[in-house]
Specification:
This protein is an all-alpha fold and 258 residues long. 67% of the residues lie in helices and 2% in strands. The protein has a two-stranded antiparallel sheet with strand order 1-2. A hairpin with a 2-residue loop joins strand 1 and strand 2. Helix 1 runs antiparallel to helix 5 and helix 7 packs antiparallel against helix 8.
Length: 258
């Protein structure tokens, strides 16, 4: 793909990412106001989460693509040469958020619950951006669906790669997760339930698509488990364990008060 087409693809994706960030902030502000929390503190937290996600995503992406003594340190600034590594951004954002929450003495799980719906609707918009920009949602999954989907305006965007339908499946799945979280939020039994429900469903969605016929069912690469397969399975296990632990704690606290 030419430099101009590459920049156009990055621009389209950037537009959707910007929309995802803006929508996410609006959803978080709504959640904070509904819960009576400190809106200014939560907005500051959003800023540090964003900074951590951007830095972590690029660092991890450049590290995995440019490993070796001859790696160019300026590669981190060349956004047109590659995408960002999802799990690197998520790990850095979690670390930045944990530090901020601890320093400002915010309630941990009650605070994380505020971000569940925002993360789901943000993923929905980002995956649509991946679809329209023609970029793969995750190269290392090895998605190779046979379905060909036409885009509105393909005559103008003909220089871009064909859209990957997996991104469309992920977008639809993320919107379904968003709807489920709205239901869970209304019936929440313990702090942290909304956040861990999101991590459980989101990882389940990605893992499910990775092993489905839509993506060729590639769990393995070269006879070994793909890193994303292991990570998603681990996140699912941790999410289930945390929900069980937090639910037990909430029940014990309720029994003690009674």
């Amino acid at each position: 793909m030419s430099f101009g087409a590459n920049m156009l693809s990055v621009g389209i994706l950037g537009l959707f990412v910007s929309a995802a960030l803006g929508t996410g902030v609006v959803v978080v502000r709504h959640e904070v106001r509904a819960s009576g929390g400190d809106e200014d503190r939560i907005l500051d937290l959003c800023f540090w989460l964003l900074i951590g996600a951007i830095i972590g995503a690029r660092l991890f992406d450049v590290a995995q693509r440019s490993a070796g003594p001859a790696a160019d340190p300026l590669e981190i600034f060349r956004f047109w040469n590659g995408s960002s590594f999802y799990y690197g951004g998520a790990a850095a954002a979690v670390a930045a958020g944990a530090i901020f929450i601890k320093r400002n003495r915010l309630p941990l799980w009650n605070t994380t619950d505020l971000f569940g719906p925002a993360l789901a609707i943000g993923h929905f918009l980002v995956y649509f951006g991946l679809f329209f920009s023609g970029q793969s949602p995750n190269e290392s999954f090895g998605f190779s669906p046979n379905l060909v989907i036409a885009r509105p305006g393909d005559g103008l965007l003909g220089s871009l790669p064909r859209p990957n339908p997996v991104a469309l499946y992920l977008a639809c799945g993320s919107f379904l997760i968003f709807a489920i979280l709205l239901i869970v939020k209304k019936r929440r039994r313990f702090d942290g339930q909304v956040f861990w429900t999101f991590t459980l469903l989101n990882s389940g969605l990605q893992l499910g698509l990775a092993v489905s016929d839509f993506s060729g069912g590639r769990l393995l690469y070269g006879g070994e488990l793909l890193p994303e397969t292991v990570l998603n399975a681990l996140i699912i296990a941790v999410s289930l364990a945390m929900m069980i632990i937090l639910n037990r704690r909430a029940r014990q606290a309720a029994q003690w008060l009674n």
